[in-house]
Amino acid sequence: MAEHAPVLIMVAVLLPPRSLDALGLLVEERIVRTPFGNVGPLALRRTGSGQSLWVQPYSGLPTRTDPRATIYAARALGIQRVLTWDTGVAVNHALPRGQTVVAVDVIDATRQQPGTFFKAAGFEALVGLGESVESATFCPDATNALHALFPAAPPAVIVGVDGPRRETAAEARAYRALGADVICPNIAPEVFLARELGICFAAIVTVDAYSRDQVREALEGEVRSGLEHAMAHLPEVAQRLSAPRTCHCAT
Question: If one looks up domain 7-241 in CATH, what number appears?
Answer without folding.
Answer: 3.40.50.1580
